[in-house]
Amino acid sequence: MAEREPQSALEAASPWPVERLSPYLIWSVWVAWVPLFLPIIIEMLLSHPKTIDAVISVAGVICFFGIYLWASLRDAWYLASTPPMASLVEARLPRAWLVLGVLSLLSIPLVLLNGGNNWFNLFYYISGYSGGRLPVRQTVLAVGGLELLATLLGLLAHNPLSVLGMTLLFIAIIGALISAVGHFVRTSQRLRSARVEIARLAATAERLRIARDLHDLLGHSLSLIALKSELAGRLLDQAPERAAREIRDIEQVARFTLQEVREAVSAYRRPALLDELQAARELLEVAGVRYRLEGEGALEAVKVPALEVACSWIVREGVTNVIRHSRARECCIRFRRGERMLWITISNDGCVPPARGGGLAGNGLRGLAERVLELGGQFEAGPVADSFRLEVALPLTGRRSEPTEVSVSEHGGLEAGRRRVERPGDVTGGQSDDTSPAG
């Protein structure tokens, strides 16, 4: 097996894994043609040639394909790696031309010894190797040189013009085909390297943004705290009352800074709705629960950060409730959009065991209901027939519009206070109703 080529500088420096094409998949483009030459060898042996001619032909074919397979495998490993620097590419091209020269020299006596005809197929392998290994311009030169060599050998072997014409045509077609495949592989490698570089730059930009935010948040406040602490220390003996005022100011500045840091950190940790939906799918599949998502078109309405955060927490808590407290076989997450409200329904066909006190309102659902009502939404959770349903309505603006309250329903669930809200009939529109979203 050929040794693996060293990593490029970009791949070695990147902390992200680089997706690779299989080198054996690339190698198969060259190897797939090899068995097609076996009938030619068998036909030569069945024609009872001279012993010396047969030995030379078989030995020459073994050397030809040995070099061909070895060189193509090494180049397959090379092409499967990320694109190296241009200087390294240029440095490896003479090696490819050397392989092409050796293969061409081996093919000349084999073609002349066996009278040409099917033995011109050796040029097909040389053309395919040049198309996959060389740049386009150099491939054109290599294929042109092969066609000139094949023409000279065909004339020396007195082959019919029809055979010679088919040979030249297939040399050009195979070279162009393999060149297109090689171009596709190199383009794919550039795209993978670009993704790695984009990810690295995005992480660097995010670190710089966090550093700037923390500097803006803490730089002024900490400097103020240091100055006031130094001033309070000097005034402690001379003016205790003023020193006490400075200390109270320090306390207020510290509390205000702490609040700003908490808000900034919560913004960094803000969940993404699509990520939560993907995580929900994975968790439910691991738990053996069939996952179904409906109303994906309504997700386009989730544009306000506060609304996305609330929806993410609803999906997370609702799915966690299904996994921990039910014996469900199927869980459905449905989004519906009205004119002013977004509805989220999480239902499952499992039975939820009663909580302490005979109710179903756990701390997770109560905390979720508080988040919803802070945004002026509506919340209801409880068993319906032989299933459990969590249904939430949130304003599309992500802001409170009317105060609501949470209550425990008669069937043990949580529900919001009655108020006039819109009741969507489908994903794109809805109508108003005076009842809560419970059905």
Automatic annotation (TrEMBL):
Pfam family membership, one: HisKA_3
| A single Gene Ontology CC term | membrane
Bias (Polar residues) occurs at: 429-439
Q: Lineage of the native species?
A: Bacteria, Bacillati, Chloroflexota, Ktedonobacteria, Thermogemmatisporales
UniProt keyword annotations, A-Z: Kinase, Membrane, Transferase, Transmembrane, Transmembrane helix, Two-component regulatory system
What protein name is recorded for this chain?
A: Carrier domain-containing protein
Carrier domain segment(s): 185-261
Question: Do the record's keywords include Transmembrane helix?
Answer: yes
Gene3D superfamilies under this entry? Answer: 1.20.5.1930, Histidine kinase-like ATPase, C-terminal domain (3.30.565.10)
Q: Give start-end positions of Basic and acidic residues composition bias.
A: 412-425
The regions listed as transmembrane in this protein's record are 24-42, 54-73, 93-113, 134-157, 163-185
Say if the entry is tagged with keyword Metal-binding.
no
Enumerate the residue ranges of region (Disordered): 400-439
Q: Which GO terms describe its molecular function?
A: phosphorelay sensor kinase activity; protein dimerization activity
- Lineage, top-rank taxon, reads Bacteria
Looking up SUPFAM superfamilies in the UniProt record yields: ATPase domain of HSP90 chaperone/DNA topoisomerase II/histidine kinase
